[in-house]
Amino acid sequence: MAEVTGPELAFRLFVAGVSVLGPTVLYFGLCRFLEWLRDDELVEHLAAQGVIEHPEMTTEEVLEKVADTGSAPRRCTRCGARNASGASACRNCSTSLE
What is the rounded average pLDDT of the residues 15-22? Predict the structure, then answer.
């Protein structure tokens, strides 16, 4: 195998660096661009004119509703295992939690 030195090595390192860092930089750029679009004054202007509607719920409200963080996990009276808040039977011993 031949040794790689000088300009060829520098070029290979440059290509490797671009290959590794390029997609990450592009992804973060896309995220920033989408945030900029979301927070743009055009959205507020169109909503004020009635062209589009404001969302009824904020992102935080949607996440709280989906995650259901308000209720605590339920414990089984028979084995003491922790179960999801909406569970009707114990995941460990199948005893009814109702």
Answer: 96
